[in-house]
């Protein structure tokens, strides 16, 4: 059923039943808070500032709990993906392998953040795996985008409904690429320990919020 014609509350229930749905809402709240903290709207020593910092940190840990077992999703996606060439297979391994390793390591980082184990050294491994995954993911999506553009050109002047769906598919693919680039920027900032102009708190927080909004839109449309 077209999401536009669905009952809002039923659609919202379906959306919130998914782990990604709740995770992205938490991501929006976290990076909105980080943007407020990065601005000069609140005094650094104010009680509200301390409460917002505590809230942001708590939401960050909560989000990691939603990644438990999520690496299995990447394993299954890799197994199910069609491979039309050795280069395509390599990109699939880079994308799903990197993201899968990232989600696997994140489980232990969640345990570390929760105070159960000491695994700070895993954060760099997690960040590098995430970055590798984004490189593969962006490469695959650019490849898919070219195919969609070719299909649009071939179908030009065809059925209006088919053209509409192809254009919507193209828009979602472009948004997905922009999301990966925003997330990749945040990962690079983590690897650089927050150094550099593009690693400024306001820039990274804005990138995080931008990514969260795109992901929320994609999840809402797909459920």
TrEMBL record:
Membrane topology listed for this record: Multi-pass membrane protein
In which compartments does the protein localize? Peroxisome membrane
Question: What is a biological process (GO) this protein takes part in?
Answer: peroxisome fission
GO annotations of cellular component type: peroxisomal membrane
Stored InterPro entries: PEX11
> Is this entry keyworded Kinase?
no
Tell me the keywords, alphabetical order: Membrane, Peroxisome, Peroxisome biogenesis, Transmembrane, Transmembrane helix
Annotated membrane-spanning segments are 89-105
Q: Name one GO molecular function term.
A: identical protein binding
- Pfam families this protein is in? PEX11 (PF05648)
Oligomeric state and interaction partners are given as: Homooligomer. Interacts with ARC5 and FIS1B on peroxisomes.
Q: What does this protein do?
A: Involved in peroxisomal proliferation. Promotes peroxisomal duplication, aggregation or elongation without fission.
Family the UniProt entry places it in: Belongs to the peroxin-11 family.
Q: What is this protein called?
A: Peroxisomal membrane protein 11A
User: From which organism does this entry originate?
Assistant: Brassica cretica (Mustard)
């Amino acid at each position: 059923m077209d999401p536009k014609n669905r009952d809002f509350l039923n659609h919202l229930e379906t959306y919130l039943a998914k782990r990604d749905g709740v995770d992205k809402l938490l991501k929006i709240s976290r990076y909105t808070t980080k943007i407020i903290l990065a601005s000069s709207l609140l005094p650094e020593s104010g009680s509200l500032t301390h409460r917002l910092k505590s809230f942001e940190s708590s939401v960050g840990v909560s989000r990691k709990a939603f990644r438990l077992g999520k690496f299995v999703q990447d394993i299954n996606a890799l197994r199910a993906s069609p491979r039309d060439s050795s280069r395509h297979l390599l990109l699939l391994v880079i994308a799903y392998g990197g993201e899968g390793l990232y989600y696997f390591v994140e489980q232990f980082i969640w345990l570390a953040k929760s105070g159960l184990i000491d695994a700070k050294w895993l954060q760099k491994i997690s960040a590098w795996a995430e970055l590798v995954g984004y490189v593969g993911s962006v490469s695959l999506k650019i490849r898919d985008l070219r195919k969609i553009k070719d299909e649009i050109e071939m179908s030009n002047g065809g059925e209006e409904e088919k053209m509409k769906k192809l254009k919507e598919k193209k828009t979602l693919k472009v948004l997905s690429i922009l999301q990966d680039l925003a997330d990749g920027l945040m990962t690079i900032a983590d690897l650089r320990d927050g150094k550099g102009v593009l690693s400024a708190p306001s820039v990274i927080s804005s990138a995080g919020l931008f990514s969260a909004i795109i992901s929320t839109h994609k999840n809402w449309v797909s459920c």
